[in-house]
Amino acid sequence: MWKASHRRSIVIEGERRISASIAQSRISILGVCFITAYLVMALRLVDLGIVQTYIFPEKESQVASQQKETANKVVARRGDVYDRNGFLIATTIKIPSLYVDPSMVLNVKDLSAKLAAILPDIDQGKVLKTMQTDSRFGWIAHEITPAKQQKILEIGDPSLGFKYHYRRVYPQEELFAHMLGHTDRDGLGLSGVERSFDDVLARGEDITLSLDLRLQHAVKREVQIAIDEFSAKAGVGIVLDARNGEVLAGVSLPDFDLNDAGHAKPCEAFNRATLGVYELGSMFKIFSTAALLEIKKVDMDYTFDARKPLKVGRYSINDYHAQKRILTVPEVFMYSSNIGSALMGKTIGGKALKAFYKDLGLMDALDFDIKEIGKPITPNPWRNDSTITASYGHGISTSPLQMSAAVATIVNGGIAVQPTLLVENEEQRRMKSEVRVISEEISEDMRRLLRLVVTHGTGKKADVPGMAIGGKTGTAEKSINGRYRNDKLLSSFVAAFPIDDPRYIVMVMVDEPHGTKESFGYATAGWVAAPASARIVQSMVSILGLSSDRYDPARDISLDLLPYIHDKKLKGKRLASYR
Hints:
There is one protein chain. The chain is built from 19 helices and 14 strands. By secondary structure, the protein is α+β, with helices and mostly antiparallel strands. It has three domains: 2-74; 81-208, Penicillin-binding protein 2a (Domain 2) (Alpha-Beta Complex); 216-570, DD-peptidase/beta-lactamase superfamily (Beta-lactamase). The longest helix is centred in the N-terminal third of the chain and has 54 residues, at 2-55. The chain is elongated. β1 (81-82) and β2 form a beta hairpin.
């Protein structure tokens, strides 16, 4: 009995010894782990405190710089946008929203009454319900004005607090709607400059645009007057620097308030200045005439037989006010003869005319600073009849901005113009490579022809006293379901001034104007768009302080072309307004 019991106690003693041994081993392993961890931490402290600080200081600086840059990306406030004169046109403001901690409210009815007096638009019943919940947080009102926030702070109730968020604000509301663009609620650029320069603005960098707030106001006002006067559907106004391509004003109407962009109608959100492409009609005669002079080297007394309509297949090309005689180059341009321009196209040839249009940038989508860009509609394939119709702006469509840039190229001495919404510094301008499209001599000839249109031709109503304006009318029938409608017109005018040394391009396009009693029922460019462009030029003279003293009627450049005008009835007289 004793032996068995003794043997059993020895076994129990052996199990305890094994358990103790296992526990001791585990403690030893855990101790080694702790020691190792402490050693690693110690080595890291040595690395950070001594090695990187004294031996490799540049590495620490680089890491710190990267950390700082990352932090900045996270907290950066979206950059502001300014016009060329430093006027703020887009900014981000910190807006408070009011919340309450219901558990800290001492007198629910008293506090809700005080808030209702400051915030009359809030639902007081809902506020009472929020304050009586068991939660620690409840919204009272979003986007509180600074004045109302101050009054709420003066209540002095500890249960009230504010949370802040950033909101994009456009002080000029709808004025720069299409060029500037807007963001979503999270600050992501959705259109215009806000979209194209989203990365730059998101980093907190400011941008200065080439747009001039004062000119933008003037252009919008005058285009809107033309729309209202002629009961039109829409309109476009552009002011472009003819030398460097800076866009000084860009208006598309109707427009919308950038601060409430989510409610913009499709017709308001559409950017007609850059995204819309249109058959702009006779303004293309600027380019076909320049191509004739540049490529064929003809003189101004070169003639075209416009005595009868020109047959092209089963179609007939006619003149709006037919002269029914042989016309010189200046007469074709001055009278805006479709027949004469079509014959110019035949003389130039399809391959050469197409290449010339391409050099002017009229065959490809415009490379511009915003992404809302329309691609030109061009004849494809380009046949013989395409050459004839494209010479007077039929069957080829482009955007108003693209047209303005091409005209700038023609009048500025022949150097290709690339439109931009950014102000370039002198170094950038020097580094710019110049691409010549036409010679200086042909550019000078074109300036004379454009001035002739205003002094003796279809653009009389674009003339401004004391300022030499050159320009070209364009009245085109719109194609509706594949059919051209003479009751739905696009009436446009493009001006360059001062025409002897052009600095500015002004373009006005009015969509579907209707004739009035004052216009004798006409809704053509000479009646609709030319006067609007004249009013814009007059505003620019005042706003920019342009001198009108330099113009001398006795030395008008159009006088050089009068010997080539052979209509005896018009000697010594200004011509009537033609299409």
